[in-house]
Amino acid sequence: MSEKTLIQGINEGLRTALKERSDVVVLGEDVGKNGGVFRATEGLWEEFGDERVIDTPLAEAGIVGAAIGMAINGMRPVAEIQFMGFIYPAFEQIVTHAARLRTRTQGQHPASLVVRAPYGGGIRAPELHSDSTEALFVHTPGLKVVAPSTPSDAKGLLLSAIRDPDPVIYLEPMKIYRAFRQEVPEGWFEVPIGKARKVREGEDVTLIAWGTMVPVAERAAREASERGVSCEVLDLRSLCPLDEEAIVTSVKKTGRAVIIHEAPKNAGLGAELAARIHELAFLWMESPVKRVTGFDVPVPMFALEDDFRPSQKRIDRAIHKVMTF
Amino acid sequence: MDRVDRCYLKPGGQLTEEGRSRWEAVPEELKLDFYRWMVQVRSFDRRSVILQRQGRIGTYAPLEGQEAAQVGSALALSKEDWIFPSYREHGVAMIAGMPLMRILLYWMGRVEGNVPPEGVRVLPPYVPIATQLPQAMGAAWASKLKRERSVSVAYFGDGATSEGDFHEALNFAGVFQLPVIFFCQNNHYAISVPFSRQSAVPTVAERACAYNIRGIRVDGNDVLAVHSAMEEAVTRARKGDGATLIEAVTYRKGSHTTADDATRYRDPSEVEDWVREKDPISRMEALLKAEGLLSEEDVKKWEEQCKALVDRAVKEAEAAPAPSADHLFAHVFEELPPELNRQRAELSGEGGECV
Lengths: 325, 355
Ligand SMILES: Cc1ncc(C[n+]2csc(CCOP(=O)(O)OP(=O)(O)O)c2C)c(N)n1
Hints:
By secondary structure, chain A is α/β, with parallel strands linked by helices. Chain A has 12 helices and 14 strands. The model of chain A has no long low-confidence stretch (mean pLDDT 97). Chain B folds into 2 domains: 17-322, Rossmann fold, CATH 3.40.50; 324-355, no CATH class. In chain B, α7 links the parallel β2 and β3. Chain B: Its EC number is 1.2.4.1.
């Protein structure tokens, strides 16, 4: 075991997969010689060569389309999209094909591939680099969607995604790529897709978050405890499928839920979570579910990004509201 | 350099034979403008890199080395023409009339930096690669349908030629014979990826024939050749003869952005060759001096003036009052729907109802 950052966890996951499975290839823009613009693929091109770690032309539809074709013909491609905000040229390939090739071919071609993309804001990136559009993919039947928030989960979820027989969109919280280090197990190890992680045990309110918002939720929970409110924090990790059991068990215990996400509110994943809680735990609830999300405006340029993203103050206010309903 | 169709001003500052006759035909004021704009652009660019290092602006995309391609092409356009730039076209933008302080605001993460003064037809930088090409084509199409004189120009890099949007835009432009110019600055790299990884054919310009539009490959560090190629393309477009794909062969001296480290993927001797031997400004300066149009004193004076211009822009940008948080909601819709009004009130602390 050794201490690694989240992005090193991803790097380790890719290295392990390339080492242990000869059918794995990594492809994308700047993933080779440059080691990725965030260094997620650092050292892999040198170690595994140009046929396994492939710098492609600048074309997202081409990258994902190629990955689907490779998957059809027996490989396990891991495609990188440089930023989630640039995934749209590949949207057709993902939504129309990767997601439903299994159904359309009645199981003959399952499109087993992974599409990695850094998402979210908070790093003063240039304009149009900070989207969180996970809901578009969660909404697409046939896709799995995951988002780690720790170095160890980053590696374990990636390896699960690579072994998974279905197409997986693997979202990387770029703001916390290097936020902290953690022990990451060596070798092939998996964190199951579809299982949330209980980050903190609590009695009064369940805070539900993923990716970049997990540390934000943890901080809110710490501060709430100073005010005498005990928060349980769930890191979903898997956005599709959802870990219904973990969510329902937690909210049945606390009777209250605050969902925190960076994406805009309207038809965001928070809406689905609130609906599930309503359907499955209505009689246990002490208060309506609250959502603290990005506002329903285009993700702004960075001068205003802190005002767009869920702030501590807004989360505190939501916790207060569910406690005093 | 690889073969180009047009080079008028050689790296040492000597005119080729064709270049000489072109030079004779260029008005003196324009000769000096080529030089002055290039120096101003470089002065702005170098200062911006420093501002980023000092934390006064965010990530910045430097253009040093590409001044001739930008200045030569932009000076061939008129006020009525539409410009669809990428994120590296600060030189084009300033010539088109974008104040320096607004360009700086953009890199400070301020949306005001996207907005040109009244009458300046420059769109905000297109960050998602190649997305400006179909739109420039569409704007040109509208000019044609409205029987207007305007042409549209899309500026983009060599990497952009790999996107589907490139194909779609050029194809429409060919089919409908549109007054659009596709101006590619081939600076040899798309971040770390060399052009040989974008294309199995060695040039961008030769793709034009696949769309039955005109293609020309110029020495992009030769401002005179770039300007003449652009002028021809504009004339053809205005006459109704259709689109041109111009490939200006150039080099970015620095990294892709201030967040990139080009030493990871470029050979130092290659960089050295472009920086020392092929600089666009020094060859123009040498020519103007040899022609007796520029003295060492003029050079000093102009450099100082540029510095002062940039100083003032930095001051203005830094003094520009910061927008309030609820500016997030400005211009999202012509009229804000009730839910967004509630969200705005929540943000401004005027109500807490929606959370
Ligand atoms: C659709 C899309 N994919 C990826 C990116 C990330 N990206 C930004 S610039 C760049 C390289 C662009 O190279 P080129 O078109 O040659 O222009 P240059 O930057 O060299 O001027 C990449 C891959 C993006 N902005 N948009």
